[in-house]
Amino acid sequence: MPAGVVVHASCVRALGARDDAHALDIVVSCCACECSYDGDGRHVQRALRSLERRMVRPILQQPSPSPPSSFLARVMKRTFSLLKKPPTDDAKDYYYFEAVEVSKTTSSARALVLETCDAMFYAFAGTQTAKDLLSDANFWLTPVASGARAHRGFVNRAESVAMDVAYDRARASDRRLVMCGHSLGGATAALATLMLLLKRPEAAKHVRCVAFACPPLGNAQLTQLVNDRDWGDVFTNIAMPEDRIVKILKSRPGYVGEFVPTRYLLQDGRVVVKTDGGNNEAEDDNDGNNDLAVVENANEAVSRALRESASLSQPRSAVYAHAMKTYRQRLIAALRIAAPQSFVAYDDNDGVSSPAVSSRQHDSSIVELRQHLGPSATFIRAVGILTRDGTRVAALARGAHIDSRTCSRLKATVNGWSCATSSATVVSPDALLIYISAPLLHGAPLPSDSMCSTTDEKTWMPLTIGAAGDFSMTFVDVRMIPRRALLDVTSDQSDVVAAPTTRSNALDAHEIKALFDVSNVSPRSRL
């Protein structure tokens, strides 16, 4: 983020952040992680609107230098588009959140993608379902790199995240990607980020990870890997001393306590970093002061908090200390102590932030619900031909970001009737081959002979196919062509035309490769 970012310096120092961008990432990640537990888009809109007002807008301030930074210019442009007037100098009218997309209820992990003026936040929820509990219980260590081993359940979750797609989409809009999560979600975000860095080391400049209540991830070699590659600044782990759930895995052989140095949120609103040597680990601000170093020894502060929280051994108290809402309350307390005057204008009589805003500002649609923010495939065009027996259609969809994660759920309809997709093959990152069966009514073929004929491909139209992963589903209409046809892709790749030929009806794998311009089809495949 460029110099001159509008974040109060006192808030940056209070969080022990490296810079303004780091402080903003921590605060916004907290908002995104809490909202990731709610799968209803409308509820998420209202929650984000409230959290932006309570946590983000109070820490923003109008910088004195001019012209404004590119970050501030984006914030002002976003604000002007909503209010139809320039924001005031005290930054009370600034709007930072732009759009959000919530994952499908059938997704492997509850998540959301929040788009802001300068970043894309990909947030994962913690343990909610029996499937999540199975992931937590799968604590055997599995290799992720040479000598580095991690929790198998967490690794499986991280591998289900289409990180390449998320990173490419963030960079395409000149935004940085911030992975974040709470508990199991924090472990998923951290390992998904690490896997991206192992595959694309250059991404370290534009990707960050903020985890709340993240449990131990793996062995000492995993921590050493991060240190050796100088990726420590990419990761931020935030915990509370009273939270004992995050310490459960420490008793398992091979696990180390902390993936990266942990920032502890104390009950009195301070943020400290506990280190093995007993000294505070902190960043100096521009004035040469070290705010974390002037408080009492961090190890002693955390140890005292542990002693005072001994009564939290009951399950109900332990769950309360681990809840994301509790972390949010602690974080707000730290920010209020650091910049009390900034929060005064956002307080009402009941202590909940609610500044005097217009009815337009109260509209929950201020944070737009938008599709295709999260990792998802994009279909551009598709062609299909009947198989040899005429009972199925082989459709080749071309597009972008196609893989087994973004296309894990398939859908097809013929004339509005749902069809079964018998199989699908990811041919390349821009091609998907799908086999579609004729629609059935109560397990039997439709009574009309004119629909889905075994010899006439026109009866299969209109045919629409769709694919989705954890987020939006993309659809495309399939252009049916005769079996005895030669496909010719035009020079600009914009269309596919068919010309009648005298070929046999049988198409083998080599013809599929030539006609569909694909390269990963089994030689035994026949249409």
Task: Provide structural commentary.
- The structure is a single chain.
- This protein is of the alpha/beta class and 527 residues long.
- The protein has 2 domains: 4-84 and 93-277 and 296-346, Rossmann fold; 378-484, Sandwich (Immunoglobulin-like), CATH 2.60.40.
- The protein has helices at 9-14, 20-35, 41-56, 70-83, 130-137, 152-159, 163-172, 184-199, 220-228, 291-294, 298-308, 315-322, 324-338, 340-344, 359-362, 509-516; strands at 97-102, 111-116, 119-124, 141-143, 149-151, 176-182, 207-212, 235-239, 262-265, 271-273, 368-369, 378-386, 392-400, 409-414, 417-419, 421-428, 431-437, 440-441, 444-445, 463-468, 473-480, 485-489, 496-500.
- The protein has a 9-stranded mixed beta sheet, with helices on both faces. Strands 15-14-20-21-12-13-17-16 form an 8-stranded mixed beta sheet, with no helix packed on it. Strands 4-5 form a two-stranded antiparallel ribbon.
- Helix 2 (20-35) packs antiparallel against helix 3 (41-56), helix 2 (20-35) packs antiparallel against helix 13 (324-338) and helix 5 crosses helix 6.
- It is globular.
- The model is unreliable at 277-296, 348-365, 485-511 and 517-527 (pLDDT under 50).
